[in-house]
Each structure stands twice: as structure tokens, then as C-alpha cells.
Amino acid sequence: MRKYVIIGAQGSGKGTQSLLLARDLDLVHISVGDIFRWHVKSHTKLGAQVRRTMAAGDLVGDDLVEGVVRDRLDQHDWNYGFIIDGFPRSRRQTEFFLEGYDIDGVIHLNLPDAEVRRRVLARRLCSRCGMDYNLIADRPTQEGRCDVCGGELVAREDDTEEAVAERLRTYREKTDPILELFGRKEYVVTVDATPDIPTVQRTIRERLGLPAPR
Predict the structure, then answer these.
(1) Which of 57, 98, 126, 170 could cross-link 131 (Cys pair, CB 3.0–4.6 Å)?
(2) How far is the C-alpha of 7 from the C-alpha of 76, rounded, in Å?
(3) Average pLDDT over residues 136-159
């Protein structure tokens, strides 16, 4: 059984790299961001709270995040392991996680702030079916329209210059203590997230001693 955490700023490719690892290693990909977005889209009470927080560029509170993660991992549908992204995002969340779960490695995707802004501000979401696009690497066939359902492509509500700048500031402030805590147990591998997706994936596997991509 393998259990990994992947850490990186928005736009660093956490979701993409996680899915590639999950597919080949039979891991369950747990995206805390996707869980929160589902609540927002479903108009739950939790979703309303998350929406206000994300729109302001802030991070969701520790109690709420820890509860969501605990509930998800308690489902125990990860027979061969999991890879979790979007968590932990604070020192307290890291301590909570280390106390409750053994992990095999932390993948730190390192990306310069300027590249983070470029990638995040190019993201688009289909307003009808929710398909993700990126105008840098994954442009739709028809400008502004989803290839799957023809719905209008829109920027995410929290993808604004101001919100991205605030998230980056908070991310840098919070991440160093997290990596320090994980690093005390020699868990952390730092990977340059600037190259293309296959190159980053190969580097991750080399650093973790995992089989090459299929």
C-alpha cells in the first residue's frame, strides 16, 4: 500500500500528476479542492461557507478541512493506497495528518510565482458540464465553447489577479513550515514543475523509486 501527499501552488499540476500516479499504481486520488467545489456546486451549507472564503482568496479553516479529510479517508475505499492533494495547507493540518496516517512520501511541485499566475489566469471551466480547460495547453476547438457539450467557458470565480496574488502570498507563508515538518521524517521530494507533464511525471517517479509510466 502506498500513501502520498502532493503539495504545490495553484497551477503547478497537482491534479494532473496525481491522476497519472493514481491510474498506474491503483491509488485513490483524493482532491480536497474537488470535494469543496462539489459542495459549492450543490449549494450545501458547507459549500456556501467555502464559496465566501475562496472568493476572498483565503484558505478554508483548519477544523473544516480536517473534518472533510477525516470523513473521506474513513471511507476506506483505498485498498492499494491514496494520493491526496490540496491538503495539508497549514502546520496544524500537517500535525493532524502525521498523527493519524502513515505516509510514504510528499511530492513538492515547485513553480515560480510568475508561472503560477500565468497558468491560473488561463484556466477556464465549462459552465454547463464542468469540464476543465487551460488556454495555454488545452484550448477548446471553438473559442470560448466546450468541446464536450458546447457550453460557455468561464473563468473560475476565484481566479482573479487579486485572489491569485493573495493565495500565493498565503501559500508561500504556510508551505515552508509544512515542508519542514514533513522533511524531519525525510518524506519530501521537491520536483521542478516548470517542464511539460510527462517530464514532471518521470521525475516524480525517479525521485520516489517508482516504476516508469506505462
Answers:
(1) 126
(2) 22
(3) 89
